[in-house]
Amino acid sequence: MVSIVRKAAFWAAVSTSVLLAPQAVLAETIFGAMAKAYENNPDLNAARAGLRATDEGVPIAKSGFRPQVSAFANGTLSNVDNELTGSRDFHQGQIGITVTQMIFDGFQTLNNVRAAESNVFANRESLRANEIQILLAAATSYANIARDQQIVVIRRQNLAFLREQLNASQARLDVGEGTRTDVSLSEASLADAQSLLITAIAQLKQSESVYVQIVGVAPTGIKQPGPATKGLPRSLDQAVALGLRQHPTILAAQYKVDTAGFQVKSAEGTMLPGVSIQGQVGRVTGNSGDGLDSNASSVTARLTVPIYQGGAEYGQIRQAKETLGQQRILVDSQRAAVQQNVVSAHAQLEAAIARIGANKTQISAANMALAGVIEERNVGQRTTLDVLDSQQTVLNAQEQLAIAQRDAVVASYGLLAATATLSVKSQGLQVAEYRAEEHYEAVKDKWFGLRTVDGR
Questions:
Q1: From CA 196, how far away is CA 186, in angstroms rounded?
Q2: What's the burial of 164, exposed, middle or buried (CB within 10 Å: 0-12/13-18/19+)?
Q3: How many whole angstroms separate alpha carbon 360 and alpha carbon 354?
Q4: How do residues 10-39 score in pLDDT, each as one tens digit?
Q5: Residue of 259, 224, 291, 234 lying closest to 114 (CA atoms)
Q6: Distance between CA 67 and CA 52 in Å, rounded?
Q7: What is the pTM of this model?
Q8: At what angle do helices 384-418 and 108-174 cross, to 10 degrees?
Q9: Taking CA 408 as the corner, what is the angle to CA 404 and CA 411, rounded to the nearest 5 degrees?
Q10: What separation, in Å, do the N-terminal and C-terminal C-alpha atoms of the chain show?
Q11: Secretion signal: which residues (predicted)?
């Protein structure tokens, strides 16, 4: 079997350009569209912000390892009314600092930290999946505009052809060689062509609006792209293997299994003893007692052994175990989904490339047939209806070619997306790649600070 890469290269080499719309001076490429979407898409930027928020779960979890420090102050004013000494006011104040350090909490903090780290890695893979989908959406919207532009041009050419046929039918009627029926048929076909052109223009505007939503800028100079070739797997088996090995939805599901496993251990830790140490330093002032100010300090060690907490701890452990089982099942679900997507995209790509070759053959034959029908009509062997039918065949074939070209492009990038090969690096996009690990490394060990990494 000829490889998909060779087929795509062959398609790009023989691709026709006669149906392309006039291009602007500054033409946008499909790679430029993907780069702008990667940088500008609000949904993708929101997902990045969500990952940064998830990163903060790690220092939050690590706070269980660290001391808790608090200051306290209190004051008391009392009045004593004695029959011998009369009324007398007493006041007392106390200030100090308390430091509490957890020594052992049944490994809850340790497992909470590990769960938070796994959650970060899972969300990082989910972000990568979002990036892939946005790149695919940008490529799809670009290909949609290229298709719609071609269809608009085809239908305009069809409209011009039908106007010529109407003029020819009217001219034949004027010299007595045609009939009023021929003129009416030409007028009906012309009106239908005008309606089709209006519909095509409306569809183009819709595709352009979707492009703006995804890419963030208005489309300029869109031209027909060829199917993707960079990183495209050579066979279906290779594509499936790639997808199952590296697709971020599968990796994210596996990290979520790890997260759920650590949450089970953390829940089980509530059944274990806990040890903490608390130190306190304070000063007492006032006129009660001997009236002398005094300093006080203490160190307290506390051992807590849970015996029964109303049954909540048992329910939480069982709940965590069920969640773990759910996450393991979801890994299998993601594997099946990725495999289905890979096989579907591969089949669509092969079908689209085959349709392109068939459509080009059909266009060539239909044009030759149309020219012959026109000549036969001119000598009275064919009718105007025959000419219009032949022209409709040409129109349909041209539009089907534009659709097949679009489908080949979308299926090729869809195959890259299904195998998780569609990325900034693999496609050589001219845009800075977002590095999620930089924010994580900056915050994972932070002890204090209100400002975010970017200064907010």
A1: 15
A2: exposed
A3: 10
A4: 333 333 333 333 443 467 899 999 999 999
A5: 259
A6: 25
A7: 0.84
A8: 170
A9: 130
A10: 57
A11: 1-27
